[in-house]
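Record type: ASSEMBLY
Status: queued
Input:
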Amino acid sequence: MTRERLEEIRAQLDEINLEILELLSRRAELVQEIGDLKKRKGTERFDPIREKEMLDRLVAANPGPFDDSTVRHLFKQIFQASLGLMEEEKKELLV
Amino acid sequence: MTRERLEEIRAQLDEINLEILELLSRRAELVQEIGDLKKRKGTERFDPIREKEMLDRLVAANPGPFDDSTVRHLFKQIFQASLGLMEEEKKELLV
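Status: finished
Output:
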């Protein structure tokens, strides 16, 4: 019974992992598009006010069990990785 | 036009953020359940082989634009945060 339930949860985790990956990837593409738009307008790509706004919105919607600081930490990592993508693109343009 | 598209993307990002948060939270609940099952069986909660397996599966399914090392990094953060939840629970039991 326990063994079966464990396998069941693991299958669910694998599925959720892939769903998260899909959303992260779609998110990254949108951030790239924002980067392109901002480049054309000549505005700075990192927007700390917008980042704070997103984090506050996430914390307000946090259903648990992660505490708010963990939610902030995880999403900051996600935001940073997306910013990293834009930086890479910049570097490529300089080559 | 650009301004409009920027607002549109931002609205999409907010939506995706919330979807990711929802999946992360559901994932964390499942990990807590695994922790409980393992506690009852007396087995170690952290399973490096299972973690590697999950990471390999994610990298194999990575559609980009994140590179594989970024996918690994982000999911390691997620796994670590979930493990953190189990640790907290352990501490509470010791109080």
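Annotation: Chain B has three helices and no strands.
Annotation: Helices of chain B lie at 2-41, 48-61, 68-94.
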